[in-house]
Amino acid sequence: MALQEKSAVKVVFGAMTFGREGTEQTRVHTLEDCSAILDIFQAHGHNEIDTARFYGEGTSESFLGNLDWQKRGIVMDTKYYPTAGRQLPKSNAPEEGWRHTPEHLRQNLMDSLKALKTDNVDMWYLHGPDRTTPDTQDKFIETGSRFDPSRWQGKMYRMRYWNDAYFDALDILRPVAKKHGLTEAECALRWMTHHSLLKREYGDGIIIGASSTKHMEENMKLLDDPNPLPDEVVQALDAGWEKVKGISGKYWH
Question: Where does the NADP-dependent oxidoreductase domain lie (predicted)?
Answer without folding.
Answer: 10-140, 158-239
